[in-house]
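Re: glutamic acid structure - here you go.
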Amino acid sequence: MSKPVRVRFAPSPTGPLHMGGVRTALYNYLFAKKFNGTFILRIEDTDQTRFVPGAQEYIMDALAWCGILPTEGPGLGGAFGPYIQSERKEMYRPYAETLVANDKAYYAFDTAEELDLVREQAKQMGMPNWQYNSVTRASMKNSLTLPQSEVTKRIEDGEPYVIRMKMPRNEEVRFQDLIRGWVVVNTNNLDDKVLFKSDGMPTYHLANVVDDFTMQISHVIRGEEWLPSAPLHALLYQAFGWEAPEFAHLPLLLRPDGNGKLSKRDGDRLGFPVFPTNWTTAEGELYSGYREKGYLPEAFINMLALLGWNPGTPQELFSLEELVDAFSLERVSKSGAKFDPEKTKWFQQSWLRMQPDATIAAELRALNPDLSLSDAALETLVGLMKERATFARDMLTDGAYLLKNPTEFDGETLRKKWKAETTEYLKEWMLRLDGISDFTSANIESAFKAFLEEKGLGIGAVLLPYRLSVTGVGAGPGMFDVSAFLGKEEVLSRMKTNLSLLSNLVHEA
Ligand code: GLU
């Protein structure tokens, strides 16, 4: 690659960042890092009517949580700032005027009412999709139809106007997309888009192209929803006489059933977040986020990376550094990527297992400052529960019996496994437990085996009832490990209390 790689993530601050947006940011980040390039954040807020307070902060915070912070952007510095379009407002008009001067754009004075009227009339004549284009412009009020003197006068009088692209007639626009190959569109299918608005602000199209050029962006990597705008952008580069950046349009994120785009409404409806972090609307409505649900950023990023890209090998677990090494735009697919909530949980489980016990223990301590366990005991608890938990905090709820004697007992295990003679066996087992001087998992296990052998009992006849009498549940980490963790005194005291309770419950059942 000859030019230095400079890529940008250019969200509009119209609300929280959808996970599709995070994926766009991630691919830009990976691409930049892979080629020792620069990852830039640019806030595209030219549409002031859609501005949502707090959205920019949300975006920065979410990217920071994901570990994919840009190196140039608002508040981050960089030689190409400002990085918020509204702060660049003054620089766009001259570019728009240059296009007018070069006959690539024109002033249009049609009012909103006049445009509505034309649309309405067209609709009544059976043309529901009227457009301001190379044909219809001839009958509209613009600098191509009005005498020059009138145009000058209207502008001098301060009459509102917009600047529109003068879309060439019947020409082929072509550009190469790094994911989709050649894209060819006939200009007859494109309208005379507004480039500069009557409020003195550029539209997305003009600002985006001017900024990508002036910020020396080498590759535009963005969502597929921008593909229809790309021919206009390609024409704008030509009109300015600029070399266009490379384009790569990423596939859509689809609903789990493959039916349509994953939208912000889907998340809480289908039971999974679509946002990286929680977002509360001005009306107080909460959209849940992965962070607050307890996901590790590593898991979230790993899952997102594989939604639309594949490494070409069976490897699924990737750290951010490994993703940088493995990533390539060539392996991004053209077709939409189905979001899979179950797989997302699998990534979380896998990443949770890879965390050091001490790290998880510290996190649990922070979540529950009142925990009475010592650091060492908490770490052991983590070691016991890690293989079964999806989220760190599950360990304290699923493993609540590691902290205190259960008050509820799993009825199904009780009914299935508690026989007439079970209480007697367990009473005898208690005596054996009492006799173990060094209460380690290994010692408990060998005592247990000896006990079974002596009594001629199968493992199932005693182990499950034993577990039930100590933990209240029918499954969990190795029961000898659990016993050693609780200690002899606690195990025996629980059994003493619970055995009579359980045999009574069985009689009632
Ligand atoms: N502001 C656009 C957005 O909200 C950016 C599109 C682009 O990257 O060109 O996604």
